[in-house]
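Quick log. Single chain, no ligands specified.
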Amino acid sequence: MIRISLHDGWTIARKLAAFESRDGVPAPVPVAVPHDALRDLPRSPDNEGGVHSGYIPGGVFEYARDLEVPAEWAEKTVLLEFEGVYRDAVVYINGAFAAHEPNGYAAFTVEADAFLHFGETNTVTVEARAHRDSRWYTGAGIYRPVHLIVADPVHLALDGTTVVANDIDPERAIVEIATRVENTTRHTRTLRLAWQIVAPDGTVAAEADAPVTVLPGGEATARVRVPVAEPALWGPDNPVRYEARMTLRDGDAVIDEDAVAFGIRRLQLDGVHGLRVNGQTVDLRGACVHHDNGPLGAITHPDAEDRKVRLLKEGGFNAIRSAHNPASRALLEACDRHGVLVMDELSDVWTRAKTVFDASVGFDKKWENDVAALVLKDRNHPSVVLYSIGNEILELGTPHGATWSRRIAEEFRRLDPTRFITNGINGILANMDKMAEVLGDLAEADPNTMMAGMGEQMAASNASELVTRSTEESAAVLDVVGFNYADSRYELDGELFPNRIIVGSETFPDRIADLWRDVQRFPYVIGDFTWTGFDYIGEAGIGRVEYTDVEGYRSTGTAGPFPYLLAQCGDIDITGHRTPASLYREIAFGLSAGPALAVHRPEHHGRPVEKTPWSWDDAVASWSWGAEPGSPVTVDVYADADEIELLLDGRSLGVAPVGAPRPLIARFETEYEPGELVAIARRGGAEIGRSALRTAGEIALRATAEASTVDAAAGLAYIPITLTDAAGIAVCDRDLEVTVTLTGPGVLAGLGSGRARTLESFAGPTRRTHDGRLLAIVRATASGTITLTATAEGYAPAVVEVRAG
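-> predicted structure:
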């Protein structure tokens, strides 16, 4: 099997109807895929996607690429493999309709043979569209990788091997392998299939072979059970993988080959030990994540997904929820490598719509294909432990919704009985038409305003008898009941439903201390997934902090007004920088006692604020400000301690107890003076830790590549650009415009900052820093040295080199 990446050679243009004129319409432009057709479109408060898409418009787009097809391929099977096209993808080959895939997140394969002109230049055209079809920014286009597959007419099926290891003990693991063989000829073929299992150290751990007969135009599944001695088990702390290699032979001739990475691990679930991996209880320190990659837009790239997973794990997370769509293959690969557990989610909607053109249209006809595509992608990834069948499904509290719950859950179990089934249940949204019974007048409010102002009322409503009664059947079909913003049910359900296992599938970020205590207190609550781990485009301003003393200020609830672009609710911002919320969470998880310092911006001291349930404080881990000495300033110290002493240049500013305004926080009202601010945490009178913030010295513009080399075949170089002193201390209130130029075999793939409210473009080449930071992402185009130069008025240029090879 030959697998060819088709990432270059494409053009994109706005799709025109058959009788539309191209007059005044821009000509097609060259692009590399994966590509996001929406990212660089002009934003406007009038765009129909509105706050959901970050005020980025939708559209219909047409990608095209020439494809040289040698004459000898006429004797082969030729496939086009798309890992994801958003959305309602239509594929034409030489002008003929070849395939349609409505699901924007599902991988699909096009059998190209019938449409190709062998020995000639062929044309592949792909249509993609996005228009008011989601509650977040989706991007559009061929945003995940594309491959050309060339195989013998009798071949190993694409993604046709399943590896399962359930029978495990220290002496051996029994590995069951099932491999599908396809025959597109008119003749019966009997071939021999050989399997080889390669251990993490590269040695052969097991091997077997068997004959397989495949009828004309059919397929056959060959199976084998082989023991692997003294298996190395995959787990969060030891993510080792084996590889199953398949070889299909006709006599001595090799017809096809393939390989699948897998992990050997044992999953257990009960209300006493919670979730166990290889016999060890694992509490899920979870992050909900959207699929976009910040400055890159919605594209999937292996380097971007690996970096995302690595940074999340460094920030204390050990689990990811793909909210609210199937994860990319690259993300799952990264989770396998880094030992991060995954809850992979099917959809945000079933049969009732949340937006006017969303995936509820036709769900009843395509849901089985969507489930099959998800399972086909996930089933060999040891990181995947939970399948989520939905998120905040509107019909969940009805008998028909319960029927759909059971139908979908059972289909997942039929296709893959080795993993657990969950669903992100929001009892309020499942009963919106009945909420007057619980909320009274508040139920008549605009949903955004209601969600922004509810807090405790949301918790009370989710614990109501109405929610208990209406969601019981839908919850009963699950292995793990996911609750969105319903931690008020944890103790209650332990009494009402003693066999129920629960996970906090979506929770408010500032409640993690209380939520994590519940995870520790109730063994049947197996973890918590915060909204969100990484900041993202769309749902603009959902976690913002607004100062309300501005003339003409008007509350907009959870909807951030234009030009908000980012959600502003991630523990990690879109550049990969950890926010104070992340430092707090690490302490709440018990991974650190602290202390960690967070300083409220002095220029806003004393101003009235409005926040949403997804907001954190407007604070930064910095003691470098342009404020006048003596200016009042609020300092928060996060710690798992009894009390905190705060010192400035060795002088005590006082001692404060930990626990106000929230658990694990001590708050100080003091005055800003340049110098060294030190927090000392004590428990029982003994010091358990200290940390410091220092005022920056002489500031320079600096650029440093996170890695000195990248893959010449479209690898990504991440280059932070900062306003820092020689010790790397950044200033947070002197932001300025930075311009980036490149020489060598690379292009600027994205330029962005953590600023949520902006009119700037990710395309660059100029962008304003945020809190002294900016991120450039460079894509290699060939081998050689790439040189990035960053310039800003009043500063010497910053130059960095990256080797592409």
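The chain is about 15% helix and 40% strand.
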